[in-house]
């Protein structure tokens, strides 16, 4: 799932771009409703293995945060490596 941290136009636009890129390779949900905590919980409940968070740092460094549902680990990954990183993580699970 791709989740902008807040419903600010610049975050929503970047999040939609990332979601469109990922949809070429994976099944992707996009959600910008409610608080980020509620969106994480909703994705956890339906079994989404990874959530991609677009935040204000993303606008500066072109990196996103990948949150693992099972371990709650969060890592920053450049958008340019996101497809490769998710592919590796999904293949290993």
3D structure, described in words:
There is one protein chain. With 93 residues, the protein is α+β, with helices and mostly antiparallel strands. It has one domain (2-84): Anticodon-binding domain (Rossmann fold). The chain is 46% helix and 20% strand. It is built from 4 helices and 4 strands. The chain has a 4-stranded mixed sheet with strand order 1-2-3-4, with helices on both faces. Strand 3 (63-68) and strand 4 form a beta hairpin. The model has no long low-confidence stretch (mean pLDDT 97).
Specify the oligomeric state. Answer: single chain
Report the mean per-residue pLDDT as an integer. Answer: 97
Terminal CA distance: 17 Å
Largest sheet, order of strands side by side? 1-2-3-4
Q: Could you please say which CATH topology applies here? A: Rossmann fold
Structure class: alpha+beta
> What is the CATH homologous superfamily assignment?
Anticodon-binding domain
Number of helices: 4
- Helix-strand sequence: EHHEHEEH
Low-pLDDT residue spans: none
What is the global morphology?
Answer: globular
| CATH architecture tag | 3-Layer(aba) Sandwich
Q: How many structural domains does the protein architecture include?
A: 1
Rg estimate, integer Å:
12 Å
Main sheet specs? 4 strands, mixed
Give the proportion of residues in helices: 40-55%
Count of individual beta strands: 4
CATH class call: Alpha Beta
Keywords: Aminoacyl-tRNA synthetase, ATP-binding, Cytoplasm, Ligase, Nucleotide-binding, Protein biosynthesis
Protein name: Glycine--tRNA ligase
InterPro entries: Anticodon-bd, Anticodon-bd_dom_sf, Gly-tRNA_synthase/POLG2
GO molecular function: ATP binding; bis(5'-nucleosyl)-tetraphosphatase (asymmetrical) activity; glycine-tRNA ligase activity
């Amino acid at each position: 799932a791709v989740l902008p941290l807040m419903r600010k136009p610049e975050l929503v636009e970047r999040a939609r771009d990332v979601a469109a890129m990922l949809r070429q390779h994976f099944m992707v949900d996009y959600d910008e409703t409610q608080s980020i905590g509620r969106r994480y919980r909703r994705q956890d409940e339906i079994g989404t293995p990874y959530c991609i968070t677009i935040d204000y740092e993303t606008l500066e460094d072109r990196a996103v945060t990948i949150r693992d549902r099972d371990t709650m680990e969060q890592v920053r990954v450049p958008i340019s490596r996101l497809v490769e990183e998710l592919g590796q993580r999904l293949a290993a699970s």
